[in-house]
């Protein structure tokens, strides 16, 4: 117990699985070897699962779930581990996004997933495959996940979704002209939904732009606000209000500097004409 390694369950899906597995095993009063005997593996394998060094297979997760009386919790958590195509931290974010009352997005350089057409998302995935960043299966997983996330817009009651797109999102061509034409149509349709506000932050905002990096802010049913941002290697979910509230202030200032919804739709429509 002196060398017992503690994991942060928010670090990754594997860490969350390991923390839950260890807690359930401790509650049962079993050693790692004893659990291993019940599920048909070594105590060392259980140790590797508990510290997040080895991802669980679905079969082993089911066996552990049954042995520990977890009532599906371990199986459910193991499914999150399967999202190997996703940046670390993003699966946890998705769980909060699905329950959020309000979603505020600011994106730079690329249309955000919630607003992408399938063709736009597929083009991004194809590019990642060609560059060797992901496998074909992983790219397909990303596209399928975007479709599932977009379904949250239609849930009842729907969340309020505020989106500010840097002008670079519109100017960057993805695929051919027909693909971009369809994507611009999708943006216009999104802007016309009753639970959305779409704005464009034009280049000429210049130094008045309070935010330069993409960020997402979620308001949860209890009115708490959290932020999500990504680095090159992982996503970070922040719940500390001292860190989140300044971002919320910056977002409101960005909205004030951005084009109105009508002017934003007019810009998108003009760009769409250029692709026709």
Précis, in short:
Helices cover 51% and strands 12% of the residues. With 276 residues, the protein is an alpha/beta fold.
Describe the model.
The protein is of the alpha/beta class and 276 residues long. It folds into two domains: 13-81, lambda repressor-like DNA-binding domains (434 Repressor (Amino-terminal Domain), Orthogonal Bundle), CATH 1.10.260; 90-275, Endonuclease, Chain A (2-Layer Sandwich), CATH 3.30.870. It is 51% helix and 12% strand. A six-stranded mixed beta sheet has the order 3-2-1-4-5-6, sandwiched between helices. A hairpin with a 5-residue loop joins strand 4 and strand 5.
Number of strands: 6
- Strand residues, percent: 5-15%
Number of helices: 12
Gross geometry: elongated
SSE topology:
Blueprint: H1 13-28, H2 32-39, H3 43-50, H4 58-68, H5 73-81, H6 90-97, E1 102-107, H7 118-130, H8 136-150, E2 160-166, H9 167-171, H10 177-191, E3 196-201, E4 215-219, E5 225-230, E6 235-238, H11 241-257, H12 261-275
Helix pairs in contact: 1-5, 2-3, 4-5, 7-8, 10-12
């Amino acid at each position: 117990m002196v060398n017992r390694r503690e994991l942060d369950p928010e670090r990754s899906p594997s860490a969350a699985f390991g923390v839950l597995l260890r807690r359930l095993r401790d509650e049962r009063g079993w050693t790692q070897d004893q659990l291993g005997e019940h599920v048909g593996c070594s105590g060392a394998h259980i140790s590797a699962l508990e510290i997040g060094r080895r991802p669980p297979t679905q079969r082993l997760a089911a066996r552990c779930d049954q042995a520990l009386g977890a009532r599906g919790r371990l199986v459910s958590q193991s499914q999150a581990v399967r999202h190997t195509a996703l940046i670390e931290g993003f699966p946890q974010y998705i769980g909060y996004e699905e329950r959020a009352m309000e979603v505020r997005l600011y994106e730079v350089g690329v249309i955000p997933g919630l607003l992408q057409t399938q063709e736009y998302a597929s083009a991004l995935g194809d590019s990642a495959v060609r560059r060797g960043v992901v496998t074909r299966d992983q790219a397909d997983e990303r596209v399928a996940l975007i479709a599932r996330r977009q379904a949250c817009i239609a849930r009842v009651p729907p969340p309020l979704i505020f989106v500010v797109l840097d002008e670079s999102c519109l100017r960057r061509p993805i695929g051919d002209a027909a693909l971009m034409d369809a994507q611009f149509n999708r943006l216009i349709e999104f802007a016309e939904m009753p639970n959305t506000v779409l704005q464009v932050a034009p280049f000429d905002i210049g130094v008045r732009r309070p935010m330069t990096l993409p960020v997402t802010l979620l308001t949860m049913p209890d009115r708490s606000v959290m932020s999500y941002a990504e680095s090159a290697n992982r996503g970070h979910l922040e719940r500390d209000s001292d860190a989140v509230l300044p971002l919320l202030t910056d977002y409101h200032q960005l909205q004030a500097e951005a084009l109105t919804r009508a002017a934003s739709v007019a810009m998108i429509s003009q760009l769409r004409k250029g692709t026709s």
